[in-house]
Design goal:
This protein is mainly alpha-helical and 71 residues long. It has one domain (9-69). The protein has 3 helices and no strands. The chain has helices at 9-25, 31-45, 49-69. Helix 1 runs antiparallel to helix 2 (31-45) and helix 2 (31-45) crosses helix 3 (49-69). The mean pLDDT is 91.
């Protein structure tokens, strides 16, 4: 995420959140920790803290939904 280009950071953050959501669904990581880890990396890459948290939460929820639906 740190080296993602400007203009792709939101997409990269969402994808990282989705992957983290899959880990949450498997019990490997807590949801709050997943959001915090991904959001902090996104802030380091240049997103605002609020945007990073919002996008990360959406990604985590998407990852959780994929696992629960079997997608």
């Amino acid at each position: 995420m740190k080296y993602s280009r400007q203009g792709t950071r939101i997409d990269v953050t969402f994808a990282a959140g989705r992957d983290a959501g899959r880990l949450v669904a498997q019990g490997a990581l807590g949801e709050a920790a997943a959001v915090e880890l991904v959001a902090e990396a996104a802030v380091e890459a240049g997103l605002s803290r609020q945007e990073a948290r919002t996008v990360t939460r959406r990604g985590v929820r998407a990852g959780l939904a994929e696992v629960s639906s079997g997608a």
